[in-house]
Specification:
The structure holds two protein chains of two kinds. Chain A is an alpha+beta fold. Chain A has 17 helices and twelve strands. Chain A has helices spanning 7-17, 26-32, 45-52, 55-62, 68-75, 79-91, 107-119, 130-141, 163-166, 178-187, 197-207, 213-217, 236-245, 253-265, 318-322, 347-351, 373-377; strands at residues 95-97, 102-104, 154-160, 191-195, 231-235, 269-273, 280-284, 297-300, 304-308, 328-331, 334-337, 357-361. In chain A, helix 3 runs antiparallel to helix 8 (130-141) and helix 10 packs antiparallel against helix 14. The two termini of chain A are 41 Å apart. Chain B starts with 28 loop residues before the first helix and ends in an 8-residue tail after the last helix. In chain B, 47% of the residues are buried. In chain B, helix 2 (69-82) crosses helix 10 (295-308). Classes of the chains: A alpha+beta, B alpha/beta. At the A-B interface, helix 7, helix 13 and helix 17 of A face helix 1, helix 8, strand 8 and helix 10 of B.
Chain lengths: 380, 316
């Protein structure tokens, strides 16, 4: 069945794909219908589906969600065959394993799962380089009909200060205490992590290999896969799912402590959802964020702000060099923190050798949203 | 929203933990706004449950003799009142009085020990203590004759040993334990139990029912070591929130040293009350402590405690 494209769009898409866009089996058109409700530019989806799923797989995906028996009844395939096919697809992030059976993933979820899949060490052997081009097609051509206004600010991500900068400060909530978050989730078996997904996928897009020379030069890549250069951390159900079914690394207690120390030491900041019960934390170097996002992300500052003791400060400039937000500058021989630029990440506090910096609380607890999702989405 | 970060931490659309808000697949404003409504509702319900688990309800104030337990208890009661809470202060100390005057009460309420035959004030008649055995025991279940009240602060006393050979205070400890265990503070209510000096109350398990232990530490090695011991024993009772408040600290340098010593001993620091002439005079003359210069500090410390427990308070 022919893919319906305007001349102009066909030229654009073939340019990205690097080959003619061919006809596909009608089954892929049917499979693409699932995405229609999202008002996306769905004209290319059948073609992309054909690249991602074989005919049998597409049949199974259309039958989702359901239990193994239900899928078997709908498609007429043997249950074992379905199970092994869908589990392989799930590993590639193209469908999901649920408590009762299997479920489809959305295009957005696909991008995300795939990116994570790329970033997982355990998956490096099985990945398919062709996927890269598919992901690129998805992200560059399948866009929403409603675009976020250019000046919209998404304040849905907040910065968690480095634990070392607030560890003996009173008035710190549990959701701001990185050590508590990591160790408590680890104890529940709901913590898994992998190297930074943004960093990985950017590397493949730009250079076709990971890591790129630039990333190595800038010190983002560490052979030991430590948390110092950027890391994805997942807690709660996601953490569990990734560890159990996708083979993501689920650190034990000692490893968790080690990862925590690496992250504390590294030139990264912690970024989480602006909610108190956070399930995903980026140990982020801010260099490659959201490679296929169409949105500008604003990281909300933490509730803390460093105060400088000028009796102890020797103006060595170390803090100004490592500040990721260029908030520290030299004024009349003294280093001064710009309160508007400072995001309270705590890096300068823990890296100061003379302990000249100390955190203080400058915002109420209500600063961290407790369910006010829409207010923080700032959709207007 | 989108690709990554599911606000409720689900695996993906239709995956583990999904609440079907459709935020992740939203392509237009209407869907997003509808989705945020669903998320808000869900998060509110989850966070209400979480807050209930971590809230400050019953606080035990412990520490070495003379460290300033009663003083800080009184200051904290004033601070809680200022933040819109109704504190119930229980004086469980069996020897020292004075907490009532620090709170601005001239008289003492009828002590609980009258229920014990040895300390009985009423003679041989069997007293009715069924209210004490109630579980949950609400503030309003406490008989009025045991309470002193002003504005939102309530005060009750377990009693003091007044005469020689009256017996040991074990039985009083039992009363206190039962009271603290059964009391169940509601929404804006807080129980503040001023404990005996040292660790004897821990030996009796009086702290069993509390959720927060505040250790008052004065600048002495014994006091710091006792703080570590109290921390260890409190953990043994399953209490999660254990904090130290430094009292009678001379200057910032001493404060820094004491804080480092606490960190070394794995005791979390909550705040400092510096040495104050004003305060010691107020205590000497038996004046209420609300007008002293240290009240602002105590207010901050109480505020931080509420913050850690994610409880509402006005921010100054």
């Amino acid at each position: 069945m022919k893919i319906n494209l305007t001349e102009e769009r066909r030229a654009l898409l073939e340019g990205i794909w690097g080959a003619p866009i061919t006809e596909v089996d009608p089954i892929y058109h049917e499979g693409a219908k699932f995405f229609d409700e999202q008002k996306a530019h769905t004209d290319i989806i059948p073609f992309l589906m054909a690249q991602m799923y074989t005919l049998d797989e597409m049949n199974m995906i259309i039958a989702l969600p359901g239990t193994l028996e239900e899928i078997s009844k709908k498609t007429g395939f043997d249950a074992d065959y379905i199970d092994s096919s869908l589990r392989t697809l799930a590993k590639k992030g193209r469908c999901m394993i649920t408590k009762t059976g299997f479920a489809r993933v959305t295009p957005e979820a696909f991008l995300y799962m795939d990116m994570q899949y790329w970033a997982m060490d355990s998956q490096q052997e099985v990945y398919d380089r062709e996927v890269l081009r598919i992901v690129e097609m998805w992200s560059k051509t399948v866009k929403g009909s409603w675009e976020m206004p250019a000046d919209a600010k998404l304040t849905q991500r907040r910065i968690i200060p480095k634990w070392g900068s607030i560890k003996d400060l009173p008035g710190v909530m549990d959701c701001e205490n990185m050590k508590t978050i990591m160790l408590e989730n680890q104890a529940k078996g709901e913590f898994s992590c992998n190297r930074c997904g943004c960093l990985t996928i950017s590397a493949f897009w730009e250079e076709g290999c990971y890591p790129t020379q630039e990333q190595i030069d800038k010190g983002y890549i560490d052979e030991s896969q430590s948390c110092a250069g950027g890391h994805c951390m997942f807690f709660g159900p996601t953490g569990k799912y990734k560890a159990k079914l996708l083979g993501a690394h689920a650190p034990n207690y000692e490893e968790t402590l080690k990862k925590f120390e690496e992250a504390e030491e590294g030139d990264v900041i912690y970024v989480a959802m602006n909610l108190r019960d956070t399930k995903n934390i980026c140990c982020c170097n801010l260099a490659y964020c959201h490679p296929h996002s169409r949105k500008t992300w604003i990281h909300m500052p933490s509730r803390f702000r460093p105060v400088r003791d000028y009796d102890k400060c020797v103006a060595c400039g170390r803090c100004a060099n490592l500040c990721m937000f260029d908030a520290i500058s030299l004024v009349d021989g003294k280093y001064v923190t710009d309160p508007d630029k400072c995001r309270g990440c705590g890096n300068c506090v823990i890296k100061c050798q003379n302990k000249a910096l100390e955190m203080e609380i400058v915002r109420p607890t209500s600063w961290i949203s407790d369910g006010e999702v829409e207010a923080n989405m700032n959709i207007e | 929203m989108g690709e990554f970060h599911c606000p409720v931490g689900a695996v993906g659309y239709d995956g583990d933990g999904c609440i079907y808000c459709k935020m992740c697949i939203a392509r237009d404003k209407e869907t997003m706004i509808a989705a945020s409504e669903i998320i808000r509702k869900y998060i509110r319900s989850v966070s209400a449950a979480r807050k209930k688990d971590i809230r400050v309800g019953k606080i035990a104030v412990c520490g070495k003799g003379g460290a300033g337990k009663s003083t800080f208890t009184a200051l904290m009661a004033y601070a809680f009142e200022k933040y819109g809470y109704s504190p119930l202060v229980i004086d469980t100390d069996d020897s020292n009085d004075g907490l009532n005057t620090k709170l601005g009460f001239d008289t003492l309420p009828e002590p609980l020990i009258k229920y014990l035959p040895r300390f009985s004030l009423t003679g041989d008649t069997e007293p009715d203590i069924s209210w004490l055995r109630k579980d949950p025991l609400r503030f309003e279940d406490i008989p009025q004759n045991h309470l002193l009240q002003r504005d939102n602060i309530s005060f009750m006393s377990v009693g003091k040993i007044e005469d020689p050979f009256q017996g040991c205070s074990c039985s009083m400890g039992d009363l206190t334990r039962e009271l603290v265990l059964n009391l169940s503070p509601q929404n804006k209510e807080i129980v503040l139990a001023d404990q005996d000096a040292g660790v004897e109350s821990f030996g009796r398990g009086v702290e069993q029912g509390v959720d927060t232990v505040i250790i008052i530490v004065e600048p002495s090695r014994e006091s710091i070591n006792l703080a570590e011991k109290i921390r260890y024993m409190s953990e043994g009772l399953g209490i999660r929130r254990i904090r130290a408040v430094l009292n009678k600290v001379l200057d910032k340098e001493q404060n820094r040293i004491l804080r480092d010593m606490l960190i070394e001993r794995d005791v979390r620091y909550l705040g400092t009350l510096y040495s104050s002439k004003d305060m010691s005079l107020s205590n000497l003359y038996g004046k209420p402590l609300v007008e002293t210069e240290l009240f602002a500090e105590a207010e901050k410390i109480t505020g931080w405690m509420l913050d850690e427990a994610e409880m509402d308070r006005p921010f100054f």
